[in-house]
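In the laboratory, one determines a bound structure by crystallizing the protein with its ligand and collecting diffraction data. In a computational setting the workflow is compressed into a single prediction: the sequence and the ligand go in, and a structural description comes out. We illustrate the idea with adenosine-5'-diphosphate.
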Amino acid sequence: MEEKYKVQVTDLHKSYDGVHEVIKGASLDVAPSEVVCIIGPSGSGKSTFLRCINKLEDFQDGHIYLDGVDLADPKVDINKMREKIGMVFQHFNLFPNMTVLENITLAPVELGKEDKETAIKEAHKYLQMVNMDDKADVKPTTLSGGQQQRVAIARALAMKPDVMLFDEPTSALDPEMVGDVLNVMKKLAQEGMTMIVVTHEMGFAKQVADKVAFFYGGVIKELGTPEEIFDHPQEEETKNFLNKVLNI
Amino acid sequence: MHLKKLRKLLLLPVSLLIAALFLTAPKAQAASKKTYIIGTDQTFKPFEIQDKDGTYNGKNPGIDIEILREIAKHENFKYELKIMSFNADVQALQSGQIDGMIAGMSVTEERKKTIDFSNSYYTDGVCLAVAKDSKITSMKDLKGKTVNVKTGTTSAIYAKSIQKKYGFKLKYYTNSNTSWADVKAGNADACFDDGPSLRYGIANGTGLRIVGKQVSNAPLAFAVKKGENQELLKMFNDGLAWLKKTGRLKKIVNKYTSKKAVKSQVVADTSILGLIKDNAGALLQGLWMTIELSIVGILAALVFGLILGIMGIAEHKFWHGLANVIIYIFRGIPMMVLAFFIYIGMPTLLGHKLPLFTAGILTLMLDEGAYIGAIVRGGFESVDVGQWEAARSLGLPYYKALWKVVAPQGFKLMIPSLVNQFIITLKDTSILSAIGVMDLTQTGANLIAQNFQGFKMWLIIAVIYLIIITLLTWLSNYIQKKMQH
Ligand SMILES: Nc1ncnc2c1ncn2[C@@H]1O[C@H](COP(=O)(O)OP(=O)(O)O)[C@@H](O)[C@H]1O
Ligand SMILES: NC(=O)CC[C@H](N)C(=O)O
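The predicted complex, in C-alpha cell form:
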C-alpha cells in the first residue's frame, strides 16, 4: 500500500456462487481528488467491482485499501469505513418513508456525527448545492428521477465522505434529467472530491475523468487518460466497445 | 455484538413467559380455606343436569352435584366447578389441573392405576340405545352400522371390546346429548351410554329406545389423582358416609330416578328471540371471554411474532434457522393439540396448575405468533434491497438500518396481513373451548347440551361471530385508510 493513494484495489477476486468468478483479479489505484470513470460492456463486472469497494459485496481474494486501511481485514469495522465512502445508486434508493430533509439528516444524527440542529443546517447546505433546497420537506416519491438522484447525492455528501462511488447514476433517468445530475457531479469533481464513477456517459468521462478504466470480462483491460482510451485505444476489445457505443 | 443485542431482545419474551408461568402458580395458600377445583361433565343426566344458562347453580343440578354440594357443606370445604367433557376432565385430573372429579365416573381397574376413588355412591352400567323407530333389536343387528360413544368413557371401552365381534363402526362424541341427538336424527344407528343416563333421557323425550340389558355394571365414585388430595378424598368419604347414614343420599337419588323424578328444566321459549333473551347473560359472558382472549392473545402473539420476524432476518444466519424451526413447529401443530399440550401436558412439567386463561393465551401466542412471525419476516423481506444498501452504505449498522429504514416500510406492507391474522385469531379462540375455556363457542355448546336447540343456538353464535368480525373489518379498513394519508 502506498500512502499517496486514497483508494487502492489490488488483485480483487469475487464470485457470487463460489464457482464462477465475476471479478478475476482487478486492480486500481485512485489518488486523492482523482476522478476515475469505469466503462465497459454490461455484465463485465463494473457494478460488482464498485460495490466491493464499500463491501456491499463480499469478495474472496485481494485487498481494498482506503487511506491505508484494508477492508479485507475482518477486524476493520466496516460501518466506520462506510461512513467515509459515499455511494450513489442507479435507482437512487431514497427512503420513501422520510422527507427529503430526513433522508439527509438520518445518518449523521443516528451515527452521532452531528446534533440534529447542525445536521439540518448542513443538509440545507447540501440541498442548495444540488439545487434542491426548495423541496426539503416533500416526500421523495413526489420528485422526478433527476431530482431524486440529486437528493441522493446530497444524502451521501452529508456524511462528509472522502470518496464518492457512483453506480450508473444517470442510467435510470429520462434524457432531459441527465444533464442536471452530471452538472452536480462535475461541480463535485471540481471541488476536489475523489470519485469512482461507473457510467455509460462517454461525454462525461471524456470531460471530467482523470483516468478511464475499461472493464472487460472481470478485469480492467485498459487504463489511461481519457485521451489515451478514447482517442488511442490499444486493446482490440476497447476499440470494439467504443465503436459500438460511440456510433449509435 | 449483534448477537448480544438480539439475545437481549429475545430474553424479554422468554422472561415474560416464565414470569407468567410463575405468577400464575398457586399463590401460597393463606390460612384461609383452600378452594378445590372439581371437574365435572358438560352434561350427563341425571348426574349432571345443566340449568338453562349452562351452569349447575340451580335447584336440580343432578345427583353428582347435589351430593358434592351437601358433602362440601357438611365437611366445610369450598369448591369450584370446572365444566368440561368427560375425557377432558379425566386428563385434567391426571395432569393435576383439577383437584377432584365427579362425573358419573365408573370405578375400573384400569383407572385405579392413576386415580384414587372414593367409596361408591351409585352403581350403573352400559346400555345400547337406538332411535325409537329403529329396526335394531339386538347387538347382532349392528353389523355394518354406525354406533356412537363418548370419548374416554366405559361405554367407549366396552364398545371397542365387542366391535370386532359384531362388526360395527364407531363414532366418537364428547358429550352424551350430541351423541343421542345424532342417533335420533338418523346420522348414526345406535349408541352406547350409561343406562341410568339413557333411561333418564328417554323419560325426558330424547326419542330413543334401549335395546337389551345393561352390561358391565360398575360402581360410580368421586375421584382424585393417585396419591394426591387425600384430605379431599377423606372428606368426601366422611361426607358420603354421613349422607348414607342419614338417608340423604337415597333422597337425592330418588329425586332423579323415581317415577316422579324431576324433569330437566324445559326451555319455555325456543324461538330465536326467546333463546337470545333467556341466554343473554351467558352469551354476553362468553362473548366477553372471546374478546378478552382475542385481544390479549393477539398482543402476546404480536410480541412473539415480531421477535420471530426479526430473528428471521437477523444479520447472523443462525437466527434464521432458529426462527424457521420455531415457526415450522408451531404452524405445524394443530392449535387444539397445542392447547391440550399446554393445558394438560405442561403442569406435569411445571409441577403446578396452569390457569385456563393463561394456557389459552400461551396457545394463541405460540400458534398465532408463528404466523405473525412469518408475516413480519415476509414484510421485511419485501422491502426493496436497495433500501438496505442505501442505509448500509451510509454507515448505518445492520440493526439501525433495519429499525430506521426497513422496518417502517415493512410494517406498512404487513398491516393487511396482520389485520387478517387478528380476525383469524378471533375465530381461533373458539378452538380453546376444547380445553374448557368458557368462550362464546363453549358457552354455546353448554347451552345446547341443556336445551337441545342446536340449530338455532349455533345460528345465534355464528351470527354473533360474524357481527364482531364485520365490525373489526370496518375498523381496520378505517385505520388503514387513515394510515395512507
Ligand atoms: N447478486 C448477484 N448474484 C449473482 N450474480 C450476479 C449478481 N449481481 C451480478 N451478477 C452477475 O455478475 C456479473 C457482473 O455483473 P455486474 O457487476 O452487474 O456487471 P456490469 O455492472 O458491468 O453490468 C454478471 O454476469 C451478473 O449476471
Ligand atoms: N360422564 C360419563 O360419561 C361417565 C361415563 C361412565 N360412567 C364412565 O365412567 O366412563
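Confidence is low (pLDDT under 50) at residues 25-31 of chain B. Keep in mind that any predicted model is a hypothesis to be tested, not a measurement.
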